[in-house]
């Protein structure tokens, strides 16, 4: 295992503290001072950790000049330095990853701790942190996404999430995968590995909860706040999360240890009268009994405080979800916020690598990218939502392909003619009867090659238009109307089977016949269950692989994708996420709106096609939204 070389740490902007009056009334519990169970250990240390490895207990201690690893009174390893923060993460039953900040140089140090090995403490990484003075460090292990990362918390409004391990593979070089805006005077952090919650203390003002997943929403919630709105009294210097997801918060002066529910209710308050100032906190577990260890920079004896787990609150680690990595990403949108929505692919008639990716811009029009992700054309035609492509029509007397998009400016169909070279031309509009236009997809009858556009409205109405290419300009006429109970958006039509699949965002997926002469009745084939398929149901795409036909769906509510059989009984075949590609410096995907699948070659790297998804939170670095491309072969490997 090795972690080598340098990694840079970029600064982030300061976020203003929220109004303290937003604190919930449930936090107004009465403190209960209880120091009868506190005992002093016969050891003084600025940090004290008691860890169990290979069924043996070891103590990690720091003082003003060194870090020591001991087994009772036996010295196992020693590292010189003055360490302001120490954190440990178990790797297996007999080894762990140890992290510390060397305060004089503001350096992050990582060691592999193997007490029974010939060399018990192996230095893996030492890197000066230039971007911020590090106030605290905390590990996060995501069992579901198979990532191990470390948060570096700065005291001036910024924090970095550094990826160390992914899918059981150590990175050759740590990679910053997220920069967070946190309160200006942040002092401590801790992570609940089961729920993916990151807790951050804002000095003597508040404790906040963020999401620890790098692709999660950046929002936060208030956990506890200072008096008179809450029950914090002093500056919080350390946090710890217990296995039952309750939280310990250590106040510096007077020294006090608060035990909080995950909602922030004070469960108990323990005064540590033997300490003038409290500085650091660690927790050790033996079955359902826990010991909290509180230490001080002043050299006072380490204080031990017992706790018991609430076994009813214990959570099991989430099962690992399949992960695939993107290999190409498009240029970021020039504007920030919710901009890019839906992609489509235009296949070059002769050279696969010259195919193009179309993407709607909800503020400006349509962007066109080559297979390297470079933007090659922009059409400023107004606010477009969804786009699709079909082939083989005449426009102005010459062969052209067609793209259609839903225009939110005037509730129309915006048409584009695509020539043989791949250049798009504005081909006019088709008015619709919709009042709040939204999703769109296309269908081409395989017998007569007639082209149709399905477009839906937030009310649930779906209209089918036939595109007439007999004249110089394309025309469109309404041929059928369909309906789902609530708001739809994503849809996809299968030209061969003449089926239309429509996503009803909060409810599930519907199937209709696609032919214009068919009836208007549909059937709901897949339901949102809040666990595997989580609303909103957004992008839909079809994929044909041999004799297998798949329906690929964006489960936006939990940042994942689900692959179903595209025929009854529509069984689930795969659930996966798109994760970080640290080698290529491409972040994972989240909050996906539209997606597209092609199983035709798009050139080198995409010989079997690609899954193309909109990324709602484009990171590494933080930029406007873009599209991520995953070779379809990666999905096939998971399906097999």
Structure, explained:
- There is one protein chain.
- This protein is mainly β and 640 residues long.
- It has a five-stranded mixed beta sheet, with helices on one face. It has a four-stranded antiparallel beta sheet with strand order 1-24-23-22, with no helix packed on it. A four-stranded antiparallel beta sheet has the order 2-3-4-5, with no helix packed on it.
- The longest helix is centred in the last third of the chain and has 8 residues.
- It is built from one helix and 49 strands.
Give a brief outline of the structure:
This protein is an all-beta fold and 640 residues long.
User: What Rg, in angstroms, do the CA atoms define?
Assistant: 28 Å
Task: Please state the average pLDDT score.
Answer: 92
Count every helix, treating DSSP H or I runs of 4 or more residues as helices. 1
Fraction of helical residues: under 10%
- Main beta-sheet strand count, sense and barrel state: 5 strands, mixed
Subunit arrangement of the protein: single chain
Indicate the structural class.
mainly beta
Strand content: over 45%
Distance between the termini: 30 Å
Unreliable segments of 5+ consecutive residues: 1-32
- Tell how many strands the DSSP assignment holds: 49
Q: Report the principal-axis shape.
A: elongated
């Amino acid at each position: 295992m090795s972690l080598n070389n340098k990694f840079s740490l970029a600064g982030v902007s300061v976020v203003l503290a929220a109004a303290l009056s937003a604190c919930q009334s449930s936090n107004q519990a009465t403190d209960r001072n209880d120091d009868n169970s506190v005992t002093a250990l016969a050891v003084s240390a600025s940090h004290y950790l008691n860890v169990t490895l290979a069924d043996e207990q070891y103590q990690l201690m720091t003082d003003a000049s060194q870090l020591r690893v001991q087994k009772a009174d036996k010295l196992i390893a020693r590292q010189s330095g003055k360490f302001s923060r120490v954190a440990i993460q178990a790797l297996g039953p007999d080894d762990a990853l140890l992290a510390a900040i060397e305060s004089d140089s503001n350096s992050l140090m990582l060691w592999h701790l193997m007490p029974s090995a010939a060399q018990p403490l192996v230095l893996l990484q030492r890197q000066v942190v230039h971007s911020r003075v590090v106030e605290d460090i905390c590990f996060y292990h995501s069992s579901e996404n198979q990532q191990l990362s470390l948060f570096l918390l700065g005291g001036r409004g910024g924090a970095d999430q550094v990826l160390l391990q992914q899918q059981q593979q150590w990175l050759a070089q740590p990679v910053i995968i997220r920069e967070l805006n946190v309160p200006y005077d942040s002092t401590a952090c801790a992570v609940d590995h089961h729920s993916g919650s990151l807790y951050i203390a804002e000095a003597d003002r508040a404790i906040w909860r963020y999401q620890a997943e790098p692709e999660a929403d950046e929002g936060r919630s208030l956990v506890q706040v200072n008096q008179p709105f809450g029950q914090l009294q002093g500056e919080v210097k350390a946090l710890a999360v217990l296995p039952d997801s309750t939280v310990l918060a250590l106040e510096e002066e007077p020294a006090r240890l608060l035990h909080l529910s995950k909602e922030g209710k004070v469960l108990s308050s323990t005064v540590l009268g033997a300490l003038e100032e409290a500085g650091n906190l660690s927790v050790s577990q033996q079955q359902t009994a826990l010991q909290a260890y509180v230490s001080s920079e002043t050299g006072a004896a380490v204080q031990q405080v017992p706790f018991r787990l609430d076994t009813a609150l214990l959570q099991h680690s989430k099962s690992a979800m399949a992960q695939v990595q993107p290999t190409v990403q498009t240029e970021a949108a020039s504007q920030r916020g919710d901009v890019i929505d839906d992609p489509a692919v235009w296949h070059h008639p002769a050279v696969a690598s010259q195919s193009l990716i179309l993407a709607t811009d909800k503020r400006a029009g349509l962007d066109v990218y080559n297979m390297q992700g470079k933007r090659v054309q922009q059409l400023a035609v107004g606010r477009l939502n969804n786009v699709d492509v079909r082939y083989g029509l005449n426009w102005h007397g010459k062969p052209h392909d067609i793209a259609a998009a839903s225009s939110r400016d005037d509730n129309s169909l915006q048409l584009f003619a695509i020539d043989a070279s791949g250049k798009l031309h504005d081909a006019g509009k088709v008015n619709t009867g919709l009042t709040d236009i939204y999703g769109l997809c296309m269908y081409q009858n395989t017998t007569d090659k007639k082209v149709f556009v399905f477009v839906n409205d937030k009310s649930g109405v779906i209209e089918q238009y036939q595109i007439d290419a007999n004249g110089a300009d394309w025309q469109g006429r309404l041929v059928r109307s369909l309906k789902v109970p609530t708001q739809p958006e994503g849809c996809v039509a299968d030209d061969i089977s003449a089926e239309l699949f429509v996503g009803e965002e909060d409810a599930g997926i519907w199937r209709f016949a696609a032919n214009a002469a068919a009836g208007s009745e549909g059937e709901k084939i897949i339901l949102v269950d809040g666990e595997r398929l989580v609303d909103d149901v957004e992008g839909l795409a079809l994929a044909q692989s041999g004799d297998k036909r798949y329906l690929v769906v964006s489960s936006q509510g939990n940042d994942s994708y689900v692959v179903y059989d595209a025929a009854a009984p529509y069984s689930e075949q795969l659930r996966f996420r798109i994760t970080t590609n640290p080698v290529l410096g491409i972040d994972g995907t989240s909050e996906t709106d539209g997606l597209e699948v092609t199983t035709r070659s798009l050139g080198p790297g995409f010989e079997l096609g690609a899954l193309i998804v909109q990324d709602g939170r484009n990171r590494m670095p933080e930029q406007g939204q873009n599209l991520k491309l995953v070779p379809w072969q990666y999905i096939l490997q998971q399906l097999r």
